[in-house]
Each structure stands twice: as C-alpha cells, then as structure tokens.
Design brief:
This protein has one helix and four strands, in the order αββββ. By secondary structure, the protein is mainly β. β3 and β4 form a beta hairpin.
Length: 89
C-alpha cells in the first residue's frame, strides 16, 4: 500500500500489483505503534514501475524507538478499463 502513494505522480490511471519481491518481515508491529512507509522508485518502464517500500514502526511504549519491520520490492502495471497494460507516458 505504501507504494501506491508514489504512483499518483505518474498521472490519473489505474494500476495493478504485478509482483512483490523479497517481502521480509523483520519485526512485529504492535497495537498502538505508529507505522511509517518510505518509498523509492527503482525503475520506470514502458507500462510498469518498480518501487522499494521500507516500513518502520515507532513503538507506543517508547516513541524514541523506531524499528524496521518490513521491506519489499513491488512492481505495479498501468492498465486500462479492460485490464490491459497501457504506456505510462
């Protein structure tokens, strides 16, 4: 979901998740934690964009403690109303 924020800069179109690579769950997220998503665009192709998503949790019991909880590489594809890939530009 964090990757979807980045897609807004590519214009008004529909995107589908094509793949998620190397999802690593490093640490748990607890009720009350504040979760932050950080994204980096790795590649913009003809119809797809690859985004690196890093997720951190600020612990409710110790707000100064920020812990990396997961990371993933996500590939999104722009599609038309019929679900066919369309060019990003």
């Amino acid at each position: 979901m964090g990757g979807l924020c980045v897609l807004g800069v590519l214009g008004a179109r529909n995107f589908v998740t094509r793949a998620m690579r190397e999802v690593e769950f490093i640490a748990p997220v607890y009720v009350g934690d504040v979760v932050s998503f950080y994204t980096t665009t790795l590649r913009v192709g003809t119809t797809s964009v690859t985004i690196k998503v890093n997720v951190e949790a600020e612990r409710a019991k110790d707000p100064s403690a920020k812990v990396k909880v997961t990371e993933a590489e996500v590939i999104y594809v722009a599609v038309d109303e019929a679900g066919n890939p369309i060019p990003l530009r």
